[in-house]
Specification:
This protein is α/β, with parallel strands linked by helices. It has two domains: 2-120 and 184-259, 3-Layer(aba) Sandwich (Rossmann fold), CATH 3.40.50.1820; 126-172, no CATH class. It is built from eleven helices and eight strands. Strands 1-2-4-3-5-6-7-8 form an eight-stranded mixed beta sheet, sandwiched between helices. The longest helix is centred in the middle third of the chain and has 21 residues, at 126-146.
Length: 260
């Protein structure tokens, strides 16, 4: 069932289906509720599933300001409050993993499944910072040397060549939000997570490398890692049968309670 709430003036869309212990599905950047369609029937047979379109994606509106992970987490907390949900299970992929980490660090949470999740700030090389600050200097100097219109054209060409597809495909506000969120390191919150946590990871993930999962496993008090051979950043789609078997095992107690 499609539903919506308004948080900070932004309409947020989500669906609610199934019955049993509440389970949030939190998608990655550039995706929407549709990314979970392959696993949704399996989950809604066992749980009450809240499948969220983050602000700026799917059927949800863009935020009217530059949000960070904090605002996105508060928006999920607002949905939980509107639905009367306490102690949910969280399933977060990529960016949805960021929100899951913040949520679980300060709210009672039954269990967490982090799938190729973000949250560890990548270590940057000197070359990376040289490129970043050269680009910033160019943005400042180019309008003076070339005129505003020519400078803007050159900057957009440079950005399209160097930027990620997520960044290049986003609106100006969503670009600013992406830049803010990507640079947030959540490692300091991971030791505060009290819920049992499953890390489900593609061994060949380049967006959120396996090294990130191993660091999370050390920092989260009760965490275990399942590595998916040959998979990349969308491990739950690349090996869906394995994902469903692991989830069913990890959430076996919650599934049994649903049948009581």
């Amino acid at each position: 069932m499609g539903k919506s709430i308004t948080y900070q003036g932004t309409r947020l869309h989500y669906t609610r289906s199934g019955a049993g212990h509440p389970l949030f599905l939190l998608h990655g950047w550039g995706c929407s509720t549709e990314i979970w369609q392959r696993v949704l029937p399996f989950l809604e047979e066992r749980f009450m599933v809240i499948n969220v379109d983050f602000a700026g994606f799917g059927q949800s509106e863009e935020p009217s300001a530059v949000w960070g992970v904090e605002e996105y987490t508060r928006s999920v907390e607002a949905i939980a409050q509107a639905e009367g949900i306490e102690n949910p299970i969280l399933v977060g992929h990529s960016f949805g993993g960021r929100v899951s980490i913040v949520y679980a660090s300060r709210n009672k949470t039954q269990k967490i499944i982090l799938v190729d999740a973000a949250g560890v700030k990548p270590r940057r090389s000197f070359t990376y910072y040289r490129k970043v600050y050269t680009f910033k200097l160019m943005k400042w100097l180019a309008p003076i040397l070339m005129g505003k219109e020519r400078a803007q054209q050159m900057i957009e060409k440079r950005r399209a060549k160097a930027g990620s597809s997520d960044y290049n495909n986003a609106s100006p506000r969503m670009r600013a939000i992406l830049s803010k969120c990507v640079n947030e390191d959540l490692c300091h919150l991971m030791p505060k997570i009290q819920a049992p946590t499953l890390l489900f990871w593609g061994e060949n993930d380049t967006a959120t490398p396996l090294a990130d999962a191993k660091r999370m496993e050390k920092l989260i008090p009760d965490a275990g890692l399942v590595t998916v051979a040959g998979a990349g950043h969308y491990s739950f789609l690349e090996n869906t049968p394995l994902f469903m078997r692991v989830v069913e095992s990890f959430l076996s107690k919650e599934i049994r309670r649903n049948g009581d």
